[in-house]
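Priority: low. Protein: Inositol monophosphatase family protein. Input follows.
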Amino acid sequence: MASPDSVFDQVLPLLAEASERAVMPRFRQLREGDVIEKAKDELVTVADREAETIIEHGLLALWPGSRVVGEEACAANPALLQGLDRGTVWLVDPLDGTGNFVAGRPVFAVMASLVIDGEAIGAWVLNPVSGERWRAQRGSGTFCDGQRMRVPDRSVPLQEARGAVLTRFLPAALKQQVEAKLGRIGQALPGARCAGVEYPAIITGQQQFAMFYRTLPWDHVPGTLLLQEAGGHVGRYDGGAYHAGDESVGLLSAADEPLWHALKAALL
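Result:
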């Protein structure tokens, strides 16, 4: 039987293979017909689909008996999202930041996470452009290119905090409330439109927080585990924990718990 430890080191090379074969050869080289609107304002490319297939086959070979829940497979069959709290499940985002990729912006990532009986055990994020390789294992810390990573020791006060405030999907009343209170924080950023870039930016201190509304598991399970294992704090708007199978909305992530509570009080 497979175990997390036996497969842990093999996931990032698999993501890199998918990037090298399916993603990077098409960056700024997309042809007519390579981009499809799978839903309103939601794009998918041949790179997304081919990368997901490569990753899925590789992960199932690493852990026989597991199952893969990929973003593109779920777009075709949403029922795949059921049962994330049972068994061994790989969550895969083959190209996080597809809109950026299509526009030729170098802000995208290839991500996977491992969930066992509903608990996130491992997370892997590859930045194909910079080459950064992030990974986290529950209880064992977060690493970037082999170096142990921790959020900065200095806690940034609310008035100096900068981070992404993503209001696009907020209900109208909540959006109006949040936007009216943005003056209480240091700087509200528009966001990278790529969770695989947003969470590492908190760990490295480029920003101190990120506020999301939609929290699809392939987007947020990898980053939340990276951040938590690096010493950051993550919670639903009401303070509850975030889990892969949780279908609710709203997520606030911060470099530390005191800042998290200050942000919640200021914005929500």
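The chain has two domains: 4-149, 158-267. The longest strand covers residues 88-96.
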